[in-house]
Task: inverse folding
């Protein structure tokens, strides 16, 4: 694993921004960009009451691969990505990604690539339950 990849995880427990930030402590890093994805109360014009995330058994390995690739492609000193699975409530943290670099430009670009690639390639699926009693799977094959 690249020295830049500091924390990678999929957790059934609540996510901690403090843990992500602690994993990225580095006196050479002048920039840190953090993205926190939270469960919102609506999607596509419908009210969301609850949701759950499920992960394929390969999801952690795929997440590690994405992190390694981003760390290699961008000039970062540190990188972290954690995603929640299980039942989540409105306001819960669903995903936290962060990168550090000597300068902010690299961290902004790497963090954007990290969250976008994670969402596109890591097999984690969202099951939303809407206020009207309907439901929807997002990201499932």
Result:
């Amino acid at each position: 694993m690249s020295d830049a990849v500091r924390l990678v995880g999929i957790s059934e427990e609540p996510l901690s921004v403090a843990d992500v930030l602690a994993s990225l402590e580095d006196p050479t890093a002048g920039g840190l960009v953090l993205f926190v994805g939270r469960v919102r109360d609506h999607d596509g014009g419908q009210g969301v009451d609850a949701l759950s995330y499920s992960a394929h058994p390969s999801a952690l390995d795929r997440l590690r691969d994405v992190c390694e690739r981003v760390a290699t492609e961008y000039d970062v000193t540190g990188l972290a990505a954690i995603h929640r699975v299980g039942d989540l409530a409105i306001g819960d943290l669903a995903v936290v990604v962060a990168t550090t670099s000597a300068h902010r430009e690299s961290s902004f670009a790497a963090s954007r690539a990290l969250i976008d690639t994670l969402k596109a390639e890591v097999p984690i699926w969202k099951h939303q339950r809407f206020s009207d009693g309907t439901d929807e799977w997002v990201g499932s094959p």
Observations:
- The mean pLDDT is 95.
- The chain has one domain: 5-132.
